[in-house]
Write the structure tokens for this entry.
Amino acid sequence: MTSARKLDLKVYAGLILFGIITPILFPNYTSQVAVMWLMVLMAVTWDMTGGQMGYNSLGNVIFFGLGMYASAVVQISMFADVAKYTASFGAMYVEFTEVQYFTGLSLGIVVGGIVATLFALLIGPFMLGLRGPYFAIGTLGLAVAVAELIAGWGYVGAGSGISMPVYPGVAGESTFVWYILLGVTALLAHLFVRWLYSTQFGLAMNAIRDDEDKAEAMGIRTTRYKVLTWAASAFFLGMGGAIFGNMSGFIEPLEVAFPTATFGIFMVAMALLGGKGTLWGPVLGAILFHIVKEATWTYLLGWQWVALGAIIIINIVYFQQGILGWAQDKWPAAFGLTVDRGPEDQPTGDTRPEAAE
Amino acid sequence: MNSSQPQIEVKSVSKSYGGVVANKDISIRVPHGRITGLIGPNGSGKTTLFNSIVGYHPIDSGSITFEGQEISTLRVPDIARLGMLRTFQQTRIYKKMNCVQNMIISVSHRDEGFSGIFKQAKDRETEQQAEELLNFVGLYQKRNLISGDLSFGQQKLLEFAMALMNKPKVLLLDEPTAGINPTLINGLIDRLKRANEEFGITLFVIEHNMRVIMNLAEEISCLSHGELLATGSPDELQNDQRVIDAYLGAH
Ligand SMILES: Nc1ncnc2c1ncn2[C@@H]1O[C@H](COP(=O)(O)OP(=O)(O)O)[C@@H](O)[C@H]1O
Ligand SMILES: [Mg+2]
């Protein structure tokens, strides 16, 4: 336990150091690495239900997109009429003072998280009644439906989207702001899950993953745990969406806010790649996936999707437990797991109840 | 509480699966603090009756009360939180978690407050209880192993220990000795008796093995083809011609 704890602290320190040094040494890569932090956030929050609880959602982008739209509405509505603003398709230029802008942004991010959470609390009891592939397909369907609803809602600009308020500071500075916000949100999310997984709550999540019927038979309030877990992941993802919307500068339902076929699949792929149901697997998976994605974009243009698809296929066909899952099987002691190597071990025999007395 | 009132009272319960009548008009009383047995050939409806009692499926007709409260309309987790647990014929544990974790998450959820669920899992007191009970069933040496790696018999013992961790009032055990090495069965019978005597847990035990149940239970009911054939002491049942026929006829 303590050695695992020390290792955790080292990894945090390393990542924070990397996070601070990168924009200083390689300022040109700031926005790429900012997106990498977003990917980490996505994989970590997806794994809360997918990895730790066995509920594989294909629709978590709902929370991302709702956070993004909620934040946009809050940021605009504080100083302008939202319907008029969106109807002008970006032609209506509202000059925000720095104070106005940052007040709106801060509030928008928090409200983005809260709206996503409320939505999860609302749909959770129904959606989480579905199991296995039904939950996966149900959440995917819901994400598509929510995107369609937003695309048809004039107040938020429908399919034409919204031009976000323009960052008031010096040109180029904003990238660093998004970088810091996404990095800090990812870090907070990870610190949160690390704590959560160490509690009774965390064990309940794992019990639901291993055998939900048994958990119910033991009196565990499974619905409560499932809904709260999803709501917590929605909170962080909603904030991530709010920040990313501002970083994009322009938001619309299909490609930016509810991208089921890209981010929606990536978050699953990243958690699987790194090792789902482990503390650091989703982080590792997100970083590797993002590096491959950016590298193939730069050097293998046109082959990017083939490369990413190949990673997913290899992962799922040959390597289901992911990198850390595989490492955990190979070196269990390093992960605080114990393997039976005792002399009284009988691989196929039965136990001797008398033995302990 | 009225001491003459049984802890569980099953009254005229019937349950069919489509055309198959699995339980027909069954009435059984399980008294407080005793060990009661349920026997019958394979397919006679024993597990179905357990499932009805713990709320796994709705019953077609009849009534089931637990300490005087009608429970036939409650669901599984609600009944579990009243203090009535069951183990499964096909052993069920949390296979990717280690034994101690399996135990810790099995604590009673009866009066768990909202803040209680955020308690650190490695709470010393709970861990100690877990270790004591693992010791009680003879699994202390295996406490840090992933439970899915245990042998079948060990998994059964773990499931039993998990149930004890919950401090239930009543424990329904579905064939606790099935699949356990015959030389180890006596040790298990001894533990079941101690759970009943020392922890005061009422036991209601399905058992296929006649020798085991005769050793264990004070009163036994026998099912056959979904119907209650007889209820009585081990001696009475052993000499009951209908019971003997049911068992012989079934093989
Ligand atoms: N879920 C089910 N669906 C359909 N039939 C079932 C189901 N469960 C049990 N049965 C049938 O009900 C009868 C009683 O089964 P069960 O209660 O499991 O018997 P026992 O536990 O005494 O061996 C059997 O004929 C069995 O095939
Ligand atoms: Mg059975």
Observations:
- Residues 98-127 of chain A form the longest helix (30 residues).
- The interface with chain B takes residues 1, 198-204, 206-207, 209-211, 213-222, 225, 277, 337-340, 342, 344, 346-357 of chain A (CB under 8 Å).
